[in-house]
Amino acid sequence: MFEFLRSYIVYLALLSGIIGLFSLNKLPGKKAKFLVVLIWFSVLIEIVGYYFTQWTGLLNYYVYNFYMFVSFSAYILLIRSVLLNRSYRFAGYLFLILFIASFFLNIWYFKENVNHSFIYSFATGVLVVMLLSCLYLVEIFNSDKILNFKKSVFFWYILGILVFHVPFLPFMLAINWFLIRQDESIFSLVLFILNFLAHSCFIIGFIWSEKKYNY
Fold first, then answer.
1. Which of these, 81, 87, 62, 10, lies nearest to 41 by C-alpha position?
2. Is 94 exposed, middle or buried (0-12, 13-18, 19+ CB in 10 A)?
């Protein structure tokens, strides 16, 4: 019933990507502009992922595993870059190493056929991003940034990441562990709703943020 929704996800990314382009004047540094790059990268992945099976005859796990590796690595580095505490920043490097190690362990585990969903690498990435995001929020709430945190595009982007990944992880694990039946209609509906919420956060960030808080 809801299978068609999955094909509309790319339009959500396009919308937030276009608004991001129009907001570039409020994104002063490379770090802030990188958020727009990540969104457009997701647009590219959605398009390639949609047609990959038609083009190659293979399942598109290759595409989304690659996207997972790049995106989570980028998220970790991004959140680390907005942290001020040296210990937190060092933890960011350790978390990045942990995620990369989990990804290549997944490759080793599926070495005969890596065209599988790397669910445990995904879980590692989500947990790492959650922990780093908590450190980011702790810094905000323990500093003067608490007064203007809603005016930072980084806050809204990180919130969008969490809004998507935190609910999606238990859903994916439940499917992987056969706790719930995999239904393409329900899967597409959940994916669309979470993408809608995430891109709404991105769009709010681009619109509400102020340049002086986006460094």
1. 10
2. exposed
Q: Rounded distance, CA 121 to CA 127, Å? A: 10
pLDDT digits (tens, 9 = 90+) for 171-182: 999 988 877 777
Minimal CA–CA distance to 171: which of 143, 148, 192? 192
Tell me the whole-structure pTM to 2 decimals: 0.93
CB 7 within 8 A of CB 32: no
Q: Which of 26, 24, 70 is nearest to 44 (CA)?
A: 70
For helices 30-56 and 153-176, what crossing angle results, to 10°?
Answer: 30
When divided into structural domains, the chain yields a total of 1
Domain that holds residue 147: 3-213
69-118, pLDDT tens digit by residue? 999 999 999 999 999 999 999 999 999 999 999 999 988 877 667 667 88
